[in-house]
Specification:
Elements: E1 2-3, H1 4-11, E2 23-25, E3 31-37, E4 48-50, E5 55-61, E6 69-71, E7 93-95, E8 113-115, E9 123-126, E10 134-136, E11 145-148, E12 160-161, E13 169-171, E14 175-178, E15 183-186, H2 187-242
Parallel strand pairs: 1-3, 2-4, 3-5, 4-6, 6-7, 7-8, 8-10, 9-11, 10-12
Antiparallel strand pairs: 13-14, 14-15
Amino acid sequence: MVDANQYINQHYPLSANRTNITRLDVSNNNLINTINLGPAENFSYIVELNTSFNQISGFTLGQLPFMKIMDFSHNLLTNFLITNSLLLPRLSIINFSYNLLSDIGPGSVILTHLDVSNNFLTRLDLQNCKNLIALNCSANPNLSNLTLHSSFDLSNSNAFDCRGTSIGQINTTSFIFDCQTGTRTLKNATVSQSNNNASNNDTLYIGIIIGMGIIIFVGIFFLFFWFFKKRPTSVINANYGSK
């Protein structure tokens, strides 16, 4: 195991011109402790940072105005807030999967891709992320509160995964998304099926009413026919009896 800052200072010495570095990749090096990218470290032109597959437990960030991609997956992070747009004004792609995160705070407006799968999140507030196009929050068993911006497209099965959470179903204007199975049920299909069932039931009821009406009509007709047929005979017999 190697201390993260010692590794960086050894392979990217401060005496060298760190401002020329746009991509810092220290992944798969069994690094431990925290990583320091504060103002004094002079990594101000980094666009992409990859620290994945280590045992880093925290980090310090300075103002990194050009950073767009951050990959801290497969580490030991417990907390990180992604709301500071002043320090990271262009950060749009974040991978924090397979950590120990319990909270990441409200997401920033510029965020487009976020992977926080396999953590310990209980809530996820992304209502400000109007540019978000891909989200993986699966395998957070205690995650029960998810807030998304209305522009987020849940219809893309490759862009959203919330399986293995405590979230049940997410309703949209056109379909219902089941987080446990990852399936989508079109509301139009459900409504159409309901309408068909209702139409069939209405037809059945109308048929029953018409049938009953016919039976009643025929019954009344035969009753009147029988009554008028019997009445003259009774009168004649009465007249014969009077003689």
